[in-house]
Specification:
Blueprint (H helix, E strand, L loop, with lengths): L1 E5 L5 E5 L9 E3 L6 E12 L15 E12 H4 L3 H9 L4 E3 L4 E2 L7 E6 L2 E6 L3 H14 L7 E5 L4 E5 L4 E8 L2 E9 L1
Parallel strand pairs: 1-10, 3-13
Antiparallel strand pairs: 1-2, 4-5, 4-10, 4-11, 5-6, 5-7, 8-9, 8-12, 12-13
Length: 185
């Protein structure tokens, strides 16, 4: 199982399964990480393998949708192209909520992410944006049953740093709790 990510800038990258943080919990960052950036995502669960999937057939390739957040260590991002690849591989940095929602719920609600007293809201994308992402991703790679395709809803923003040693992040969709985790340095 892989996590394909369509970045906000329009690139396709992979995150290995080891980045997926199953369950809400604390994430403890290694001592060489001093700050973290984050991007909210909508993701779909791939239910059929394929390559070069046409947009008109994309709905056949996913069966559920979810929301989450991807963490990126800033130090690794700033160390060049290999650094970005390393940032995408750091364990327990992909928060993808389960159970997934029915794919018909796309575009119906609003993703809310709270960090302390700050709340950010993101409009859920429609099915057309997901179908575009599947078509685009399968130009470059083969998708397999069980993979996730995540689409970033916004550019990465600073989330926390070592000066604030513990940060609680809570996500919900239409009042339904998705995730809550604490980032610890």
């Amino acid at each position: 199982m892989n996590i394909l990510v369509k970045t906000y800038d329009g690139n396709i990258v992979f995150r290995p399964e080891t980045t997926w943080k199953r369950g809400d919990d604390c994430v403890y960052l290694p001592e060489f990480i001093d700050s973290v950036e984050a991007a909210p995502v909508v993701f779909v669960r791939i239910c059929k393998s394929g390559r070069s999937v046409g947009r008109q057939f994309a709905t056949r390739y996913y069966d559920a949708v979810g929301y989450g957040m991807l963490l990126y260590p800033t130090e690794l991002l700033n160390s060049g192209p290999e650094g970005f690849a390393s940032a995408c591989c750091l364990d327990h940095t992909s928060f993808l909520s389960l159970p997934c929602l029915d794919r018909m719920s796309l575009g119906d609600g609003e993703l809310c992410i709270a960090k302390g007293s700050e709340i950010q809201r993101y409009k859920a994308p429609g099915a057309g944006e997901i179908e575009d992402a599947i078509e685009f991703a399968t130009r470059f790679c083969y998708i397999r049953t069980g993979d996730f395709l995540a689409v970033e809803l916004e550019k990465r923003k600073p989330l926390c740093n070592r000066q604030q040693p513990s940060t609680l992040v809570v996500g919900s969709y239409g009042g339904y709790p998705l995730f809550d985790f604490t980032v610890n340095f």
